[in-house]
Amino acid sequence: LYQSLDRMMAVLGRMANDAMVHEWEAEGARQDQHRKAVLQVIASIIGIMLTGLLLWGQLLMALRRSRQARGQLQREKEFSELLIQSSGEGIMALDTRLDCTRWNPGMTALFGGSPPVSSPIGEIAPFFARPALLAGLERGLAGESFALHDCPLDADAGRFLDVVGFPLVSEGQV
């Protein structure tokens, strides 16, 4: 009996060893799959981080370019304002409703004072309510330059003005 049990024990031992080896191989395969999945997640996270870093760099460069452009625009605006203010000629700017938005010292010397901001041109001085001048301004709003010569400012005193107007066009709009 002992010999038959001994043989049976040997067979059962081999079967147990085979079962254990099979379980370890299955566990190893499962761990290999988990490792591959973890590596894939890590690679994805690294890819996302690199993409974010690239986007962050582009954002910083765009902000820098924007700041430079804004600075350049400010310098050009200050230069244009200086030119307008220092010109000996009367210069004014109108918006599309024909309201005065800029008035330089030359205009103040001609008409005696500065109009309030956004004053309708016809209310600033009777000179601006003339039909020929209003027609020229309408042409300016249509995108055309115009010139009116020898417009009487004070005909009794022999004061006449040449009025030159031109539209400022930005992106196809006056």
Describe this structure in a few short sentences.
61% of the residues lie in helices and 15% in strands. The chain has 174 residues and is an alpha+beta fold.
Overview of the structural elements:
The chain is α+β, with helices and mostly antiparallel strands and 174 residues long. It is built from four helices and five strands, in the order αββαβααββ. It has a three-stranded antiparallel beta sheet with strand order 1-2-3. It has a two-stranded antiparallel ribbon with strand order 4-5. Strand 1 and strand 2 (99-103) form a beta hairpin. The protein is rod-shaped, with a radius of gyration of 43 Å. 5% of the residues are buried.
- Overall mean pLDDT stands at 89
**Unreliable runs, pLDDT <50, ≥5 residues?**
none
Tally the beta strands. Answer: 5
Task: State Rg.
Answer: 43 Å
Share of residues in strands:
5-15%
N-to-C SSE string, H for helix and E for strand: HEEHEHHEE
How would you classify the helix and strand content by structural class?
alpha+beta
Portion in helices: 55-70%
Number of helices: 4
In whole angstroms, the N-to-C terminal distance is 114 Å
Q: What does the overall shape look like?
A: rod-shaped
Taking strands numbered 1, 2, ... along the chain, how are they ordered across the largest sheet? 1-2-3
What kind of sheet is the major sheet?
Answer: 3 strands, antiparallel
